[in-house]
Amino acid sequence: MLRSFSRRAAPSALFILAATQAFAADGIDAADTGFMIICTGLVLMMTLPGLALFYSGMVRKKNVLAVMAQSAAATALVSILWFAAAYSLSFTGEGAYMGGLSRVFLQGIGLETVSPLAKTIPELLFMAYQMTFAVITCALVGGAVADRMKFSAFLLFCTIWLFLVYVPSAHWVWGGGFLGQMGVLDFAGGTVVHINAGVAGLVAAYMLGARQGYGRDNMAPFDLSLAVVGTGLLWVGWFGFNGGSALGAGSRAVFAIVATHLAACAGAAVWTAIEWIQRGKPSVLGMISGAVAGLGTITPASGFVLPWHGLVIGAIAGGVCYWFCTVVKQRLKYDDSLDVFGVHGVGGIMGTLMAGVFATAALSVSPETPQGVAGLLEGNPAQLGIQAVGVIVTTLWCIAGTWVTLKIVDALSGLRTSSDQEREGLDLALHGESLHQ
Fold first, then answer.
1. What is the DSSP letter of 336?
2. Is pTM, for the whole model, over 0.85?
3. Collapsing DSSP states into helix, strand and coil, what is residue 434?
4. Environment class of residue 217 by beta-carbon count within 10 Å: exposed (0-12), middle (13-18) or buried (19+)?
5. How many whole angstroms separate alpha carbon 152 and alpha carbon 2?
6. Which runs of consecutive H residues, i.e. helices, occur in 324-380?
7. Which end of the chain is more exposed for a tag (fewer CB within 10 A), N or C?
8. CA nearest 139: which of 203, 222, 78?
9. Residues forming a β-bridge with 115
10. Is the pLDDT of residue 376 over 50?
11. So what's the pLDDT on residue 11?
């Protein structure tokens, strides 16, 4: 999604990897197209089956299928809505706050049509790639309200929230809107994806209330082996998520992929080390949580930094996200079932801020000599301020938009299952199916 940083911000961002990649000339390029087809498949795989397995492995047995249903439904529903109008409103037009209607139902897109935001691949492919980001963002929110949200409410939420929160944010940052124009750096989704998903999850967790028996009953994960497999699919899929945001096959994509992988490794290592020291045993849940924290946090900076910056960002993510998921969560007394805010929301905020710091630091260290921690001290206060504006605007809009969305959904269908349904389990109560059968 490297496309919409402003002319003022572009020289700094491009200088980071200027020796490794030049922008391709206009016209559809076969190599870029092939690469982006693969990346589109990888990001779709992150939701199905990646997120479905990751989430289902961490809930109780009676809710496994219900969580999987959320990922499957988000994929189908959001894809149709993206085709119908969401893509056009996000990535066409020149408005500062909202896109246009020129691509409603993909009208006007032919075999040779390209988007001005991605000039070397077919626009239809650009649309499909962006679609996979919208899909996983909506699906992520479901993890915060697992075990207790109505399926009908989740479908309504995805429909309204996509247009009220995700579409404006995507346009502001990536589609030519005011945040991109002012120079906010977000390579692959720290604001649009992770802050939005995490903050929406936090608001939803507060509005729905805690699960029955939260803090008293045993809510141990059903099968962490599913979650580990899901983590692996997410990890590999993230190469398409971040690498594909270069929108072409080149060195910038490679730098993003390597920084992403190292951040995941560092996040897993630090979370595991802290847990091992504090609790005496390194848990599998901690390892995979740290990896996902590292992946989410590196996302906005991945194409702007050097590989060793990925290690540092991932290590910070492992420590801070662990603290939020274990200490802050208890103090604030919210039941975010699968720690969507603690991992994605906090990671997105940190990563967006660090994109400014580390992108500037990279200017003082050439790719050939990735050393010199002194570079970390040579930050650009102006860019950090711009990044902070991006974080604040995205967070406040998401809080307001999510609250309004949930109020509308509550009035239309109600948000939460009944007490009896929750005790029985959402698999049987909502879907008439069960792993017991």
1. -
2. yes
3. coil
4. exposed
5. 35
6. 329-332, 340, 346-362
7. C
8. 78
9. 118
10. no
11. 33
pLDDT at 21 over 90: no
> Which residue, among 43, 425, 14, 31, has the nearest Cα to 234 in the 3D structure?
43
Radius of gyration of the chain (CA): 21
Between 202 and 437, the higher pLDDT residue: 202
Among 205, 88, 198, smallest CA distance to 137 is for 198
Report the C-alpha gap between 432 and 415 in whole angstroms: 19
| Cross-strand partners of 416 | 149
Instruction: Give the pair of three-digit tokens for residue 274.
Output: 């802290």
CB 127 within 8 A of CB 106: yes
* DSSP state at residue 282: -
- Backbone conformation region of residue 147, classed left if phi is above 0, alpha if psi is from -120 to 50, else beta: left
Write down how long the chain is.
Answer: 437
Ordered structural domains, the chain, with CATH: 28-431 (1.10.3430.10)
